[in-house]
Specification:
This protein is mostly beta strands. It is built from no helices and five strands. It has strands at 20-22, 29-34, 41-46, 69-71, 80-82.
Length: 83
C-alpha cells in the first residue's frame, strides 16, 4: 500500500529513463528518479532544454535546514562552492 497520497515506485533508472516522467517522451519533459544504491535522488530536464527553477521570480530557498550547496562539485565544503 502507498505510504503517502502519491507514492511512485518503479525502476530507479537514470536520467535517460527515469522513475517519473512528466510530459511527452518524444519532446522536452521533466524526469525524476533515484540512484539504485539509495545514495541520492535526481531531477533532470530532458530533451536538450534547460531546467528552469522558479521562472516567475519568487524567492528560492535551498537547504533551509542547513547543509552545503555545490555547483560543479559533488562534495561542497562550504555553504556555496562553485567549481
Amino acid at each position: 500500500s502507498p505510504s503517502s497520497p502519491l507514492n511512485v515506485v518503479g525502476n530507479s533508472g537514470d536520467s535517460n529513463t527515469g522513475t517519473l516522467i512528466l510530459g511527452p517522451t518524444s519532446s522536452t519533459n521533466l524526469r525524476m528518479g533515484y540512484n539504485t544504491a539509495g545514495s541520492y535522488s535526481w531531477i533532470q530536464s530532458h530533451g536538450g532544454q534547460p531546467l528552469r527553477i522558479n521562472e516567475l521570480g519568487n524567492n528560492v530557498i535551498l537547504n533551509s535546514g542547513g547543509g552545503n550547496v555545490g555547483i560543479g562539485t559533488t562534495n561542497p565544503g562550504g555553504k556555496l562552492e562553485v567549481d
